[in-house]
Amino acid sequence: MAHPFLLCATAQRFVRAKPYVLCPIVALSPPSRLNAMPEEPIDLDDLRRLYAGGGGADIHDPHFREVAGLQFKSGDKRRWPFAEPSTLLDAPYMAGGLTAETLDRLDVALIGVPMDLGVTNRPGARYGPRAVRAIDRIGPYEHALRVAPMNHLTVADVGDVAMQSRYDLALCHADIEACYAMIGATKAIPLSVGGDHSITGSIMKGLAATRGPMGMVHFDAHCDTGGIYEGSKFHHGAPFREAVLAGVLDPKRSIQIGIRGGAEYLWEFSYASGMTVIHAEDVATMGMGAVVAKALEVVGDGPTYVTFDVDGLDPVYAPGTGTPEVGGLSTREALQLLRGLAGIDIIGGDVVEVAPEYDPGTVTAQAAAQMLFQLLCLVHLRR
Fold it and tell me: Fewer CB within 10 A of the terminal residue: the chain, N end or C end?
């Protein structure tokens, strides 16, 4: 007798995975592969009748057919990842897209900020946007959250922030702030790729001109709340002190996750201002669900910026960065934490500090592109 799956057009013999939560307010976990299997294995003869000679677009189960339909619109025809110019998340490229008129037509603007004059250690993050653009096959479907955000959002890579001087750090920051002030007056949500982490302070200042003070979820090895170094307040160890003092970042609605390393004295401002600091060691002690729950409690329902420094990851997962610190998050942990933020009022986000010169096999760029995609999913899930 034929296997019931062969007789059932709706494939009701397949058991669907039911999502569960880590705690009452944490996002869905990925479906178990075991739960996606048929109740009874299909014998070899039936497997041959069902699948032998089948094409890539011949998907019999309605769930998997629906998932495929979210990603592929032309049967088994697939985009060649090694052809055509590269863009952030393979989004359409919009030449000259950093104008108010263009941005008002977008839900999400993907932007490069190729500036690393603020680094205190190894340079090279100016090449981060180019490295992340070179990564293909990220998305378009997020299997744990079960969303395909580009099917619902108008998204484009609008190029890089134009800066007047590659030599003048303060002038670069003035250009970044002005650009994001213009973006903030449009409907587009900016998701940016740096560049060193100093860019985030000026992005926040620009957005706050129209979108008000914001909370923050910050993934990093370092608090980045230091003071003036060698005459400059624009280095990558100080953006969030500057943002708090400028009144654009609400420290009581800010949480920093993954903090570690020997520069403990630089954490003082984070604690003094009322930020919530979760050290890398705390993530393991508290558990992922508790960390996510704390993040959601801290940021609440207000406008929130999500910033991801790749050195928040352990150097095993992100060697290509300027200031690596051992003992960091794994990529799986980072993805789970970002997924848990589903529902926050994200008004912008970034991934920073990718330095491809130190990145064998594009390991760091791959991780950065995936984190950028997770930010895009958060935007979709808020809409």
Answer: N
Q: 229 burial class (0-12, 13-18, 19+ CB within 10 angstroms)?
A: middle
* 63 and 98 housed in the same domain: no
pLDDT of amino acid 35: 52
96 three-state secondary structure: coil
How many C-beta atoms lie closer than 10 Å to residue 214's C-beta?
Answer: 23
Residues facing residue 190 across a β-bridge: 109
Residue (of 196, 199, 198) closest to 228 by Cα position: 198
How much is the CA Rg of the chain, to the nearest whole Å?
A: 22
Q: Return mean pLDDT, the chain.
A: 89
Residue 256 · residue 270 · CB < 8 Å? yes
363 and 319 fall within a common domain:
yes
Tokens coding 179: 């650009």
Q: Note down the domain range covering 223.
A: 88-382
Look at 70-74, 284-288, 316-320 and tell me which has the smallest mean pLDDT. Answer: 70-74
Residues 193 and 293 in one domain: yes
| Residue type at 357 in one-letter notation | E
Q: Which two tokens stand for residue 346?
A: 């994200």
CATH code assigned at 322: 3.40.800.10
What total number of domains does the chain contain? 2
What's the pLDDT tens digit per position in 151-175? 999 999 999 999 999 999 999 999 9
Asked, for residue 121, whether it belongs to a domain, the answer is yes
If asked whether residues 34 and 166 sit together in one domain, one would say no
Whether residues 104 and 29 share a domain: the answer is no
Dihedral, 60, 63, 66, 71 alpha carbons, nearest 10: -100
Q: What's the whole-number mean pLDDT along residues 1-18?
A: 37
CA-closest candidate to residue 226, choices 214, 218, 234: 234
Q: List, in sequence order, every residue forming a beta bridge with 93; answer none if it has no partner.
A: 157
Alpha helices in the chain (DSSP H): 4-7, 44-51, 62-71, 100-103, 128-133, 169-184, 198-211, 239-245, 268-273, 280-286, 288-299, 331-340, 363-382
Query: Do 30 and 165 have their domain in common?
Result: no
CA–CA gap between residue 283 and residue 123 (Å, rounded): 29
Distance separating alpha carbons of residues 77 and 100, to the nearest angstrom: 36
For helices 288-299 and 331-340, angle between their N-to-C axes, nearest 10 degrees: 40
Hey, what are 33's tokens? 């592969």
Pair (96, 52) in one structural domain: no
C-alpha dihedral (336, 87, 146, 47), degrees to nearest 10: -110
